[in-house]
Each structure stands twice: as C-alpha cells, then as structure tokens.
Amino acid sequence: MRYISTRGSAPALDFEGVLLAGLARDGGLYVPETYPDIAGRLAGWRGLSYQAIAYEMLLPFVGDSLTPATLGDLIDGAYGSFNHAAVCPLVQVGANDFLLELFHGPTLAFKDVAMQLLGRLFNTVLTRRGEQVTVLGATSGDTGSAAIEALRGLPSVKVVMLHPKGRVSEVQRRQMTTVLDDNIHNVAIEGTFDDCQALVKTLFNRLEFRDRARLSAVNSINWARIVAQTVYYVTSALSLGAPDRAVSFSVPTGNFGDIYAGYVAKRMGLPVDRLVVATNRNDILARALNAGDYSTGTVQPTISPSMDIQVSSNFERLLFDLFGRDGAVTAAAMTGFQHSGRLALGGNILDEARRSFDAVAVDEDMTRETMAATLRQTGLVVDPHSAVGLAGAARARGDAAVPMITLATAHPAKFPAAVEAATGISPGLPPRMADLYTRQERYAVLPHDADALEAHISAIIA
Ligand SMILES: Cc1ncc(COP(=O)(O)O)c(C=O)c1O
Ligand SMILES: N[C@@H](CCOP(=O)(O)O)C(=O)O
Q1: Class of 86-108+223-423 per CATH?
Q2: Which residues line ligand 1 (CB under 6 A)?
C-alpha cells in the first residue's frame, strides 16, 4: 500500500513512512492511493472478535511494514488494555437506536482505541530502526491524555503536547499534567485548540526544524490513527446485521477524524446509509455540509470542550476525494482557506458530500436536555459529547428501519461538572484514578507563538 498527499507534491510513502512522517512535507495529509475492498469478506467476519476484525482491517494498510504476526501481537496487546471484553460494546438505547461505547480504554475516551495501537507501532518501528522521534501534538482534551498514556516511558519518543490553557476540563488537564515521566512535556498555550493545531502544522512546515527535531504526529494527521478508528464501524455494523443491511452512524465531531474513519469504512465497502456529523455550537462543519459555507468564526467554549474546534483538520481528506483526488486543486483550496478563513463549496461538491453525510449543530440547552432525557429513558449517564451525538441522531433520523448507532466518545467522569448540572448525578472516576485531584502537576505555559514553541522544543531535545 502506498500513501499520497492530499496536496499532491510530497513523496508517496509506505505505511512505516506515514506512521513516522505525520504531516506530508507539502503541508497535506496522507491518504491511501486506493481503498482496499472488504465488501465481499464482511459476511465471513461475523462472530469474529474485535481483535480479529482489527487484524483483517489493518493488514492491507500495513503492507510490508510489519510481519502479520507482529501486527497480530500489537493488536492483542493494545486491546488487552481495555476494560471490556468486547473492547467497544454496543448498548441499545431505543427501538432501533444504539450507543457504541468507545470509552473503555485506559484514559476513558475513544482516542485510546487508536492510540493504544499507535504507541505500540511507534515502539516497534523505532526500536527496529534504532531511532528517536519527538511527537508534537495538539489536544482539546482527550488526544493528549490518550497519547501520553500510550507513549509514557518509551525511550525512543519525546512527547510535546499542547492544550489550550483553561479550555479543557480539570480531569482532562490532570490526566495529562500529572504524568511526570521524563519523556512527557505538556504545554498550555494561551489560545484555542485551533491555535494549538495551527502551531503544530506551522512547526511541521518549518522543514529544517522538523528534520532536526525529528517531528512525528499522534493527532489524526497520522493515517494510522484513522485506520485504527475504522474498525469499530465494522464491528458494530456486523453485530447489527451488516452486510445484509445498512446501518447509520451519528458521530460527535470536531476535528473530523472519527467520522472520516466511518467514511473510509464506507468507501471500503461497509454498507453505511447515513453518516451524521453532530457538532456543538462550533458549527463550521454543519454550515459547510448544509450550505456550502466552510468559513471559520471565533471558537466558542461549550460543555463539550473536546469539540470546540473550527478548523477540522481531516475535512481536507474528504475534500481531496470530493475534488476528484486532484492534489493541485486541494492545495489551492486549502491555501485559500488558510489565508481568508473561507471556502465556498460548489453545487456538485456539496451534492457529492451529501450522498454520505448529514450535519446537525446541537446547542448547549439541547445537549443538557439530551443528557437528562437519556438518563430518564434508559438509565444511562452519558457525557456531553456523546449527548451531542445522540441529539444529532434524533434530529437527522431518516428511515426508522435502519439501525442508528451513536458513538459514545467519552466516559461521563471526564466532565463531572457538566454531567451533574444536567442530570444531578456526579459520575465517579475509576478507583485507579481516585487520587487524580491530589497528584502533582507539571506543565509549561507559552503564548500562541511558533518561535516561542520552537525554542521550547529545542531546549527539550538539546
Ligand atoms: C470526547 C470527544 N468526542 C468527540 C470528539 C470529536 O472527534 P473528531 O475530532 O475526531 O471529530 C473528540 C475530539 O476529537 C472528543 O475528544
Ligand atoms: N478532540 C481532540 C482534538 C484533536 O483531535 P485528533 O483526533 O486530531 O487528535 C482532542 O481531544 O484532543
């Protein structure tokens, strides 16, 4: 399998190359040259374990970069760390409505599903090559702790993780800043998540620094993150009758990585009816997919802070497909967007996108009401991000005969204040995290400034 850049001019790479490269050198994102076809094999995967389906899904993407036996071992190790035998269990919440619980990993968010594997991939490949990298990441709260948990203590990796100062929940911040391993470096940036992500991309585009620091990525910039996230779309669809019938998904969305993984699964042949993009009031994706208006505004703080994002990195991967996989057209569109903050999506492009996607923006009252109603109707306490997904599912519900699966992306205990305000219940952390509020924290604070960040990282790697 070869991977090409959405901007058309970076060299094509194999799996090992994209794993370590992160952002392409032309500023684009790597995507596979072709999508492997799984349609004819799905029926034979019914009844297999999560791990076995993960192996089947990942094998064609990995190519010669790992032996099949090594891939199998890494998958078994990654999902052995989960707190549920099914890894990502489905729970019925309505007549034909389901929640896909993605928060049974070590840091209680869906990011663990990909990150537990990514950490093992980094360790295996870097140990074999005898190399070290500096992972530079941006987080609105969950990617950071999942990456830190997966990479802490690895001699081959230094982690520099940026979060927006004061804009993540206290649990999320402490999950990152109380990890005191020598290779972990947290930085609170005076700005938004978009500012953090822009800093990451700016430093990757400073090629001399990028090479000197040997930058690598753990955000969904990294293709390995996306492919690992395709697996639960397949396992959940199979348990509800695919490939004999199609299913729909509602996905709480910010950086567009998770729902893009669903789109990839669909492109590979999974029968998916609708993919519902559910945003909070940071609604750029809803405006883009409903009215062709992909234009940024000011990031609004919400009770689902991990989705307080305006510039959704992976939307570029979808645009690349919508532009007929033309790297020059995608590069021109993204450069224009970077300068003006706007991109108008024309009729054909929009029609094509709408063949797969619906989009719904959910406000704060609706999010709270959905948390309360879910508790009343099902007895389940859901986190605010999952509530955005459930509200999106209800609003976009099409054919009632098609099962609707909402992705539950975080455990409610990560957002205790918002959950208690909406439901009256204060969800507790698992016993292994009981002392989180008293652990020592360590992090630096920096302005939103690429030079300051470059100097900070240079000092770390010196
Ligand atoms: C809990 C939670 N839900 C939803 C999302 C949105 O996912 P994505 O950024 O892949 O769209 C995030 C952040 O990524 C998150 O942390
Ligand atoms: N919500 C995310 C934002 C980063 O997304 P990623 O999927 O690109 O890592 C977070 O929790 O950090």
Answers
A1: alpha beta
A2: 109, 140-142, 220, 252-258, 306-307, 385, 409-410
